[in-house]
Specification:
Helix content is about 55%, strand content about 5%. By secondary structure, it is mostly helical. The longest helix has about 30 residues. Helix 4 packs across helix 5 and helix 4 packs across helix 6. It contains eight helices and five strands, in the order H-H-H-E-E-H-E-H-H-E-E-H-H.
């Protein structure tokens, strides 16, 4: 059997659609979320480039059904129990002659929906298996999480700072090749821009 019959590739298939905040500002999206309980899912539904993640034929995919049910029960402002979301989803499934699903299945679907929202809007929702609920990450938890993660990488970042300063003062022009060699470098640029925008720097 020839290897060409079942080819493989190094690049994995995409797990999400494109970023959508280039169409609306964060402040405008926040305002929209305050007046429309389905602001996020509706934007995904209106974007053709998200079709394969949002639609299964003429019906919503399981992650979008879970997201819509979570939104309808106050996702943007409070913790929503997974059981409440599962109840709404199952009512819809039963009306369509489909079998109901478990809370664990809903949890898994919300985890996929969380990846969609992060990719499309950079908004983080957290399905919590311990408490079996889901919520949008609020300011306090965001700060706590940032502090924890910065603490974990502090020593490595210090090492990177030492080496990059050494490269700078040594005028190592050949290191310009690093600019396009690592997605981590691009992540550092994005982190720096985000920290400036939220006033978390001294500049």
């Amino acid at each position: 059997m020839s290897p060409e019959l079942f080819p493989v590739r190094e690049k994995p298939a995409k797990q999400t659609g494109p970023y959508l905040l280039d169409k609306i500002t964060p402040s405008d999206l926040k305002q929209e979320m305050s007046t429309d309980v389905h602001a996020l899912s509706s934007r995904l539904m209106r974007c053709d480039l998200w079709d394969q993640y949002v639609w299964n034929g003429t019906s919503l995919t399981a992650p979008l059904m879970a997201l819509r049910a979570a939104e309808a029960n106050g996702l943007y402002t409070k913790h929503v129990p997974i059981a409440v979301i599962a109840n709404d989803v199952n009512q819809n499934l039963l009306k369509r002659g489909r079998k109901p699903i478990t809370d664990n299945s809903v949890f898994s679907n919300l985890s996929k929906a969380a990846k969609y929202l992060q990719a499309a809007f950079h908004i983080v929702i957290q399905p919590n298996r311990e408490d079996m609920n889901v919520s949008v990450l609020d300011s306090g938890k965001t700060v706590d999480s940032l502090k924890r993660w910065f603490g974990q990488i502090n020593s490595r970042v210090k090492k990177i700072e030492t080496l990059t300063k050494h490269a700078e003062v040594s005028d190592f022009k050949t290191l310009e090749a690093l600019a396009g060699s690592s997605p981590t470098i691009e992540s550092f640029k994005q982190i720096s821009a985000s920290l400036k925008s939220i006033g978390a720097t001294n500049e």
